[in-house]
Automatic annotation (TrEMBL):
Record GO terms (molecular function): initiator methionyl aminopeptidase activity; metal ion binding; metalloaminopeptidase activity
Recorded superkingdom: Eukaryota
Binding residues for substrate: H150, H248
Organism: Salpingoeca rosetta (strain ATCC 50818 / BSB-021)
Protein's UniProt name: Methionine aminopeptidase
Keyword Protease: yes
Classification lineage: Eukaryota, Choanoflagellata, Craspedida, Salpingoecidae, Salpingoeca
Residue ranges constituting the Peptidase M24 domain according to the UniProt record: 85-311
Residues holding a divalent metal cation 2: D178, H241, E273, E304
Cofactor note: Binds 2 divalent metal cations per subunit. Has a high-affinity and a low affinity metal-binding site. The true nature of the physiological cofactor is under debate. The enzyme is active with cobalt, zinc, manganese or divalent iron ions. Most likely, methionine aminopeptidases function as mononuclear Fe(2+)-metalloproteases under physiological conditions, and the catalytically relevant metal-binding site has been assigned to the histidine-containing high-affinity site.
SUPFAM superfamilies registered for this protein in UniProt: Creatinase/aminopeptidase
Cofactor names: Co(2+); Zn(2+); Mn(2+); Fe(2+)
Length: 330
């Protein structure tokens, strides 16, 4: 849910959209997958019970974009019982993602996935962070095929051969946990498989570099190496971020080569969320003012975890039960 800067050249259209009469969604079919060219129908805002604590941006109705200008002193370490709360929020985000993803199948709408995630989060006594964040209307982000990030769940049915990123953030006991992953819908082509694999590997290699005393720029270096190997481009406009009582806070976590000098310290909690593209890294935003699609119509995949820097190394707060992604620093 974070756009670093808007460098969109806009206005250029890669190919002519056709309207799918049944759903009224403008899409374009290209070599085996359907391009998202315009937003679909979005269902009414879902209800969160009154007794669930809401982030301040929901109460204030308007959230302002976080000031991500990063200096060492602007990165606030979390400590004590706050870390336990971060672990709980991270675990709930991971469980929500696994539960929602288990319902991915051809014919299922992204709106149905949103409803499943919403109910799961609310039943756990938590608030779905994206709902009402800077006007976002849904509880998760669902980014299909050429959508890079911030896809808004709608009435489009998933199709065999699609890829879909599901991005879940929950607000539990006053803190946020944020995770995402890209999934194949049925059988996908080889290029899509490599794209998904590249995004996961970029995330895991970046996590493996983390630990106390490590400069944040090591993350960009690790992602670049994986992108090079897979011959994918890094979409530099969507960055990782500090997270805790705020959805987005310093540090800005860059997924490309940089020479920022801020360093990881115990208690730092942040996301790593590289988005890799098959083609060019450039993007544009659809009319809903959220959905970010590749300018060239090629596909994009993203993977994200929330991590905590400890005295010994790094702890992945949104780790899946079946996932091995931690490294103890010797
Ligand atoms: Co995030």
């Amino acid at each position: 849910m974070l756009l670093q800067r808007l460098w969109c050249s806009g206005g250029r259209r890669c190919c002519k959209p056709t309207i799918n009469a049944a759903r009224g969604i403008a899409t374009t079919r290209v070599s085996g997958y359907e391009k998202i060219a315009a937003p679909g129908e979005v269902s009414p805002r879902r209800v969160v019970p009154d007794d669930i604590e809401k982030p301040s941006y929901v109460r204030a109705l308007i959230a302002r974009a976080a000031d991500m200008h990063t200096t060492q002193s602007r990165i606030k370490p979390l400590q004590g019982e706050m870390l336990g709360r971060m672990r709980d929020a991270g675990r709930l985000a991971a469980d929500t993602l696994a539960y929602t993803a288990s319902h991915i199948a051809p014919g299922v709408t992204t709106d149905a996935l949103d409803e499943l995630a919403h109910e799961f989060i609310v039943s756990a006594g938590a608030y779905p962070s994206p709902l009402g964040y800077m006007g976002f209307k849904k509880s998760i982000c669902t980014s299909v095929n050429n959508v890079i990030v911030h896809g808004v769940p709608d009435d489009r049915e998933l199709q065999e051969g699609d890829i879909i990123n599901i991005d879940v953030t929950v607000f539990l006991n006053g803190v946020h946990g944020d995770t995402s992953r890209t999934f194949a819908v049925g059988a996908v082509d080889r290029s899509a498989e490599r794209l998904i694999e590249g995004a996961e590997k970029a995330l895991h290699d970046a996590i493996a570099t983390c630990g106390p005393g490590v400069p944040y720029c090591a993350i960009g270096e690790a992602v670049e190496a994986v992108a090079d190997f897979y011959r994918l481009s890094i979409c530099p406009y969507f960055i990782g971020h500090g997270i805790g009582p705020s959805f987005h806070a310093p540090p800005a976590v860059l997924h490309y080569y940089n020479d920022e000098d801020y360093v990881m310290k115990p208690g730092h909690v942040f996301t790593i969320e590289p988005a890799l593209n098959e083609g060019s890294p450039e993007f544009r935003i659809l009319a809903d003012e959220w959905t970010a699609v590749t300018l060239d119509g090629q596909r994009s995949a993203q993977a994200e975890h929330t991590v905590l820097i400890t005295e010994e190394g790094v702890e992945v707060l949104t780790r899946r039960k079946d996932e091995d992604c931690e490294r103890a620093v010797e």
